[in-house]
Amino acid sequence: MTRVWDEFAAAVFDVVSPGVLLLLALALAGLVGALWYWFPAWVPRRLPRLRLPRWRLPRWRLPKWRRTRKPKAGRKAKTKVEPVFAPTVVLPDGTLLADRLAAEGRYAEAIRQRFRDVVGDLTAAGVVAPLPGTTAAEVAAAAAAQRPAVAGPLAGATDLFSEIWYGDRTALGVHDERMRALTGDVRTRMRGVTP
Fold it and tell me: Are 117 and 89 in contact (CB under 8 A)?
């Protein structure tokens, strides 16, 4: 086997010099590496449709560079933050949605709606700007940093909401009344503090 290999290598080196063969091997390795790195990007999204009247060629995607540009030091990236929460939800008959849910005995949903209403009021007042995916604790921390007066009742409302909604605790009318009092206290303190 060794003799066959030696004869093959000698025949190759008679045709191609070792330097050119090394360059070809490096080019082939670079090509394989590039294809391996950008593999999903150069594969067409779908096969071409074979219709008799017309035939479409597949659309090839160019590889995207994985490095993203950083904003220049002098400029800050402007992001428009749209509020996720609307202010207090009032039904057409003038009642609050949270009160309607509590009257129907759906206390957990009423507690969630009361918390959403107070977060909506804080958003409308410009105290917080919650993005999608922001947790209740993050909203409470941001509001407490902006308006320390609301920190106590808002933390209590957040704890009650998390305990009922995420802790799978059965909600009762007492819990709804407690949430009503806490959110009312937050609104009272918001009116008493000027921005």
Answer: yes
Radius of gyration (C-alpha) of the chain in whole angstroms:
33
Distance between CA 88 and CA 109 in Å, rounded?
15
φ, ψ dihedrals at 150, nearest 5°: -90, 0
* Structure confidence by residue, pLDDT tens digits, 63-104: 665 555 665 665 555 555 454 455 677 777 777 888 888 888
Residue type, 111: I
Distance in angstroms (rounded) separating the CA atoms of residues 106 and 38 = 53
Q: Which two tokens stand for residue 118?
A: 């107070």
Rama region for 126: left / alpha / beta (φ>0; ψ in -120 to 50; rest): left
Q: How far apart are CA 176 and CA 108, in angstroms?
A: 8
In the 8-state DSSP scheme, what is residue 133? T
Contacts of 34 (CB under 8 A, 6+ apart): none
